[in-house]
């Protein structure tokens, strides 16, 4: 009986809300054309939001909020006072916290809305230049057998690792990368972290992988694997012993050459 009452209550709730919606539409005396435009614009907005958060951690947060909202509706239908009170307070807190929770996604969405074709061309050219600088620097370091560790931030914050190094906030360039890794300079040891086309820090300490597969690897390779296992960051490694270049993604390491690195970075940095 309890389940039947809950289902009946849910159907009654949906019917009542639908009737109220159409009643309000009737009171507004909107034309069919206005209704179609209204629904179409709302659909486009939701579609844009879906594309914006698809594949990011925000997507899972939204799913969690939807589940909580469904529980809230069920608690109202079944008159669950304690659950309804708790979820009501929680949802109020979430609404206030949304700008903070989705700060990165909101910023990215507003940037996309304000982008023009000229702006996109300029950004594409800047990314192409950065990729060329990184590939050229890596090939040069590989020829000279100079070890290097270059980390590319994705969705997961790397602030705790950037905080262990020297803050730079510098534009990515071939010359700067060669200066950092090309000689026994103070910033030579550790990793460089790149975020939003800038080197935010150098000489950063990374966590080492503790898997059995990493036991025979060198320090840089262990650090790259450890970073990839704990975050979604992508990492370039150049071996100081052999000069070989490797790329680490999602806990997997592959040996690469200059042309492979160009292709990988183009896919990685141009995906947006």
Describe this structure in words.
Strands 2-4-3-1-5-6-7 form a 7-stranded mixed β-sheet, sandwiched between helices. It has 2 domains: 31-113, no CATH class; 117-269, YojJ-like (1. It has 10 helices and 7 strands. Helix 3 runs antiparallel to helix 4. The protein is an alpha+beta fold. A hairpin with a 6-residue loop joins strand 5 and strand 6. The chain is elongated, with a radius of gyration of 26 Å. The longest helix is centred in the first third of the chain and has 27 residues, at 2-28. It has helices at 2-28, 32-53, 57-77, 81-101, 103-113, 117-143, 159-162, 174-181, 219-230, 258-269, and strands at residues 148-152, 166-171, 191-195, 198-204, 234-238, 245-249, 252-256. The protein starts with a helix and ends with a helix. Helix content is 61%, strand content 14%.
């Amino acid at each position: 009986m309890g389940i039947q009452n809950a289902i009946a209550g849910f159907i009654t709730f949906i019917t009542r809300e639908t009737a109220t919606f159409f009643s309000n539409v009737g009171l507004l005396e909107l034309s069919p054309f206005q209704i179609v435009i209204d629904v179409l614009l709302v659909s486009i907005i939701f579609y844009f939001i879906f594309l914006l958060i698809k594949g990011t951690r925000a997507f899972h947060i939204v799913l969690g909020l939807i589940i909580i909202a469904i529980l809230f509706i069920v608690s109202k239908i079944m008159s669950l006072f304690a659950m309804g009170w708790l979820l009501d307070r929680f949802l109020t807190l979430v609404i206030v916290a949304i700008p903070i929770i989705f700060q990165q996604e909101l910023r990215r969405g507003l940037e996309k809305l304000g982008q023009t074709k000229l702006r996109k061309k300029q950004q594409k050219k800047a990314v192409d230049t950065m990729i060329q600088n990184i590939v050229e620097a890596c090939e040069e370091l590989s020829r000279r057998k100079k070890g290097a560790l270059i980390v590319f931030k994705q969705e997961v914050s790397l602030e705790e690792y950037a905080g262990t190094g020297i803050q730079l906030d510098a534009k990515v360039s071939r010359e700067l990368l060669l200066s950092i890794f090309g000689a026994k300079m103070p910033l030579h040891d550790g990793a460089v972290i790149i975020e939003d086309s800038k080197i935010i820090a150098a000489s950063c300490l990374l966590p080492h992988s503790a898997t059995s597969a990493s036991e025979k690897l060198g320090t840089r390779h262990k650090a790259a694997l450890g970073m990839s296992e704990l975050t979604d960051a992508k990492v370039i490694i150049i071996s100081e012993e052999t000069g070989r270049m490797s790329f680490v993604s999602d806990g997997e390491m592959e040996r690469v050459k200059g042309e492979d690195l160009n292709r990988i970075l183009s896919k990685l940095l141009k995906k947006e």
